[in-house]
Every structure is written in C-alpha cells, then in structure tokens.
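Exam prep: given the inputs below (a chain plus guanosine-5'-monophosphate), describe the expected output before reading on.
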Amino acid sequence: MKKDDCIFCKIANGEIPSRTLYEDESFRVILDLGPATRGHALILPKDHADNLYELPEEKVASAFVLAKKMAQLISKKLACDGFNLVQNNGEAAGQTVSHFHVHLIPRYKDDGQKINWVPGEPSAEELDGVLEQILR
Ligand code: 5GP
Ligand code: ZN
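Solution:
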C-alpha cells in the first residue's frame, strides 16, 4: 500500500521521476540526490513501511539480498574500494524520510566521508548490565 503524502512512495511507484538503477515489482533503486559519495543509492520498497519494524519479514529479506546484488554491481562499475550499507530507523538514528530505505554507499580511499562513531569504553559491569537488560 502507498501512503498519500509520502515522497518515497511517489518515487518508488514512478509518480515522481528518479534516476533509477533497478526496478522490480517490489523495489526501486535510485540515486540519492544528496549523495555521501559518488554512486550513493537508495533501495525503496514500493509498498509503504515507515521503518524496518513495519516492513514485512519477506520484504526485509528481499531488500538485503537486493542490497548485496546492487553493492556488487555498483562496486564493479564504479571501481570503488569499499562499501557501506546504512539503514536508519527513527529521528534519533538519523532517519529523515519515514519510508524504509537502505543506503548503498560506495567508498573510495580518501573520500573524506565519515560513517562512523566514537567507540565507548564501558566497564565489564556496564556491558553485563546491557546483556542482562536485553536478554531478560
Ligand atoms: P535518511 O536520513 O532518512 O536515512 O535518508 C534519506 C535520504 O534520502 C538522504 O540521503 C537524502 O539525500 C535522500 N533524499 C531525500 N529526498 C530525496 C529525493 O527526493 N530524491 C532522492 N533521490 N533522494 C532523496
Ligand atoms: Zn512511503
């Protein structure tokens, strides 16, 4: 199902034109308009889901199989040196468009981009606490 006011629904379903790298009955893969690096692309499901949790499991599986295929294709064609898959859920995690998408980000030596975090230094007790909280 499409969501009326969703820009990625409109792009995924061809109502708004996009630079499309791949399309099938469930997904469209497009070039990102604000790319982190040359060749940065997005996998969009054609049916609306706000995020990973709302996307049906079979679509999640297909999206990541497609991510592998697209990463291989883009790597070969653009001769990049590495590849990041990024998938943001929620504003706190950097999601700006509330329609599930997977970022395909080719990486080049010295491309100057940072898709990174500052490693923490938790104590053994803190790590044990996290483990217990998640498993409990
Ligand atoms: P998020 O921050 O939600 O994970 O990523 C949203 C991405 O969508 C950003 O990288 C942004 O550049 C891209 N984007 C936003 N609007 C458009 C658009 O209209 N067309 C395309 N191709 N990309 C878009
Ligand atoms: Zn949508």
